[in-house]
Each structure stands twice: as C-alpha cells, then as structure tokens.
Amino acid sequence: MENINFDEIKTKNPKKIAVIGTGYVGLPSAAVFAKWGNNVTAVDVDIAKVEMINSGKMPIYEENVEEFIQEALANKNFIATTDYALAVKDADVVFIAVGTPSTEIGTADMKYIDEAAFSIGQNLSEGKYTVVVTKSTVPVGTNKRVTAGVLKGANGRAVNFDVASNPEFLREGYAVYDSYNGERVVIGSDSEKALDVLSQIFEHLDTVIFRTDVSSSELIKYAANTFLTTKITFINEIANLCERVGADVKSVAEGIGLDARIGKRFLNPTEIGFGGPCFPKDVNALYQLGLENNYEFQILGSVINVNKQQMFRFIERVTQRFGSNLENITLGVLGTAFKDNTDDARHSGAIDVIRQLRGFGAQLKVYDPMALATAKQMLGEQNIEYVDSYENVFDKTDAVIILTEWKQFKDYDYENLVKNMNNPVIFDARYMLDPNKAKQSGIEYYSRGRKVL
Ligand code: UDX
C-alpha cells in the first residue's frame, strides 16, 4: 500500500455535512470528510459514544481516525452529538450510515434506517436544499422508503431534498486508506442536481466518480460484496479439491490470479470460511431479495451453504486428530478477529470455531493482537484463558490453531515455539505457514490443499 500525504488532499467545495451513525462506516467517513476540509457533524443516539468521540477517544479502532478527529475537533470543523437538529439543520448533505443487521430470516433489518429518515425529516430546514444519502448497505428500493420516512418526519413542512445512494466499499482496518485510494466512488440518484452536489464531495480525489440511478447504485454494493464472497468460496472449494487430488491451492490461486480477467485479490483460501459484519449478512440479504422478487439466486445459495460447511470440515479435522472428546486437550488459538488489522470479532469464523471446540470439551488458550476484548465479551471465560502474548499460546498446549490472517502470524519462530508444546501440532486455517518449512521444523502441520514436497 502506498503512503498518502493526507494534508495535501483537500476539497475545493467545503460543505456542511451530517453523518448519522458512528460505527465502522460512519466514524471513518466523518473523519475523512472533516480532514478534507468540510464542516462535519456526526450523530449517534448513544451519549457515551458521543462524549468519548468529543474527548478525542474512539469507540472503535481504525487507522488514522483518532488523529483526524482530534485535529478536526481542535479546528472546530467536527463535533459529535445526539442532537439531530444541530447536525441536519442547514446541512448540504446528510449521510445515513446506521447499521442494517440481519433479521432472523436473513433480510436486512431497516429499523435504524427508518428512525434516521424520520428524524432527518423532522429537522431539515425549510427551503434549504439537502441531499439525503444512504451509505449503509440497503436493499434495492430503500431510497423510496427513505423519501417516505423523511416526508413523514417533516410532517407537511416545506422541506427541499433529494435522496441518493453512495455505497461504501471500505474494508475494515483500511477504511481511511480506501477512502483516499478507492478504485471508484459510486453515486446514484434520480436527480441530476443531487448527483452534482455529491460529486463535489469527491471530485478532488484521483478516482473515477461513477454516476448512476439510485436503484443501480443500491444493487452495485450488494453485487460487489457478494461477487467477492463467491470468489473466496470458489478458491475454498478449489482447496477442498486440491486436498483430494494432491495439488496445492496457493499455487493454483497464484496461477489463475495472474490472468487479469480473474485477478489476484480475494483469492486467499480460508478453511473456516469468510466472516465479518458485511459479507455473511450481505450474501444472505441478496439471496433473500432474489426470493422476494421470485428469483432464486442459485450461486449465492451455494456460497451460503459452502461457507457454513467449511467451518464444520475444519472442526472435523481437529476431532479426527484428537477424537471427539477433547476434555483432556488444551488448544492454543491465534486470532479471534474476523480478519487482520481490526478489533472486530462480529461474525468471526474464529469465534464459531472456538465455541465448537469448547463444546467438545477442549480447554483453550486464546490470543489476538487487537480483538481479545471483543472475543471475551462474546465468549465469556468458560474453558478459555485469554493470554496477552502469542508465545503463551504454545506453552504446554496439544495443538495450535491459526484462525485469523494477521500478517505477523507469518513471521513467528514456529520452529522454536513448538518446542514448548506437548505435541508440535499446528492447524493453519489461514494458510500462514510454508508447509515445507513446517515439515522441516518437525511440525505436524495441517492446512487443507497444500502440497508438501
Ligand atoms: C468488506 C468489503 O471488502 C468492503 O469493500 C465492504 O465495503 C465491506 O465488506 P470487510 O468486511 O471489512 O470489507 O473485510 P474483507 O477484507 O473484505 O474480508 C471479509 C472476510 O473475507 C474476512 O473474514 C476475510 O478473512 C475473508 N477473506 C477476504 C478471505 O477469506 N479471503 C480473501 O482473499 C479475502
């Protein structure tokens, strides 16, 4: 990743911007809008979060966000508040970045979007033109729902607004980097005027601003994310096949990735499937959206099923080695986050694996560079010791399992670390180690679809 000189990249058209929601999308977006030189107000219903942000501390970890917010607080072009009126009154643009959690049947739960739209409507200034933009990942047609919500909140006042969609493609852990360096910004609206205002927010970036209608924009987000889940699932299935035919999945991934039509990225296999707050939710939501429109999106049905099975295949590997009664077995775990560089463990495959192994009676020693606190909240203390150094994970354990792709996990001195274990067994669900080196180091190494020469 290249270095960015953040101080040099500024907007030519500063705007008054409101951002509703201060989670993993809203807060980095607000920080970046402020850093570009806009006047930004972030709204959250959670007073504790708002106070924390205004004191310069962040409720989530995301690189550069804290320093951007601290600088903007000092420059007085950023404030967080619980008060919609302060944020929305006279705003040029309001971004809705609230959560859309999954309902029980897998559709997107729209209650926070509805509440936001209603409150925006209540507080828009009469006459002042405002663009209300949905940034959250929402089903196609949500713009109509937002329009209705805003009008309901306005309750007959002469508000002047258009709705638009600006899906985010920010990866957690790299949200600021991606905001500066994205390959495209997608803006969708059925109003040219709204598209003109929105494009002014991004036009100083060296990127493509892709203008489209609002429904296409809404679908682009789902299509992009679910395409990526399909790509990951494809390589996971190739790994399953490699295991049977004696080929090496990393070589196959490299060999196909060199074809620009396929591309190298998002071809890293994982034995425990993809996770996180976006991919599992989005793939379910798009599958459900198909069903609601009398269309069975068969590829996505398979992606959902294969991804569920991956985790059980992995557990089976451990129980095949140690038997299904793990009561006298202590397992060391490297990684609880759903991926590297984040403190987020929501819908993390690692958390599911730990739960399953605990269910078989195993004792676990768990380490993560950043997501240990979140893991503790989700898993509690039963059968689990949370350790603050990776060396500890190897100390008198019967096997170590690698569940998150933290880059530093590649660099550990495994040859020496395994000497402290009861057995030198490593299950590498994230393909971090070189299998040949592992073999030379006397490690009993498990990783699906790797070829040891
Ligand atoms: C994703 C999209 O990448 C981003 O564009 C979108 O806006 C939000 O959702 P994020 O969930 O932060 O971002 O993480 P991402 O890096 O995409 O990883 C998601 C999951 O897929 C993780 O569990 C990760 O470990 C897994 N993954 C990713 C793989 O298993 N293999 C890969 O090659 C890439």
Note poorly predicted spans: none
Strand content: 5-15%
CATH domain class of the largest domain: Alpha Beta
Shape: elongated
For the record, give the distance between the C-alpha atoms at the N and C termini, rounded to a whole number: 32 Å
Q: How many distinct folded domains?
A: 2
Structural class: alpha/beta
CATH architecture of the largest domain: 3-Layer(aba) Sandwich
Mean pLDDT, rounded to whole units?
A: 96
The beta-strand count equals 14
* Residues in helices, as a percent range: 40-55%
Give me the number of helical elements.
Answer: 17
How does the major sheet shape up? 6 strands, parallel
Key terms for this structure?
Rossmann fold; 453 residues; binds uridine-5'-diphosphate-xylopyranose; 14% strand
Write a brief caption for the model.
By secondary structure, this protein is α/β, with parallel strands linked by helices. The protein has helices spanning 26-35, 47-54, 65-75, 84-88, 111-123, 142-154, 175-181, 192-202, 214-245, 249-257, 279-292, 298-322, 349-359, 372-379, 390-393, 414-417, 435-440; strands spanning 16-20, 39-43, 78-81, 93-96, 129-134, 160-165, 184-188, 208-212, 330-334, 363-367, 384-386, 399-402, 425-428, 444-446.
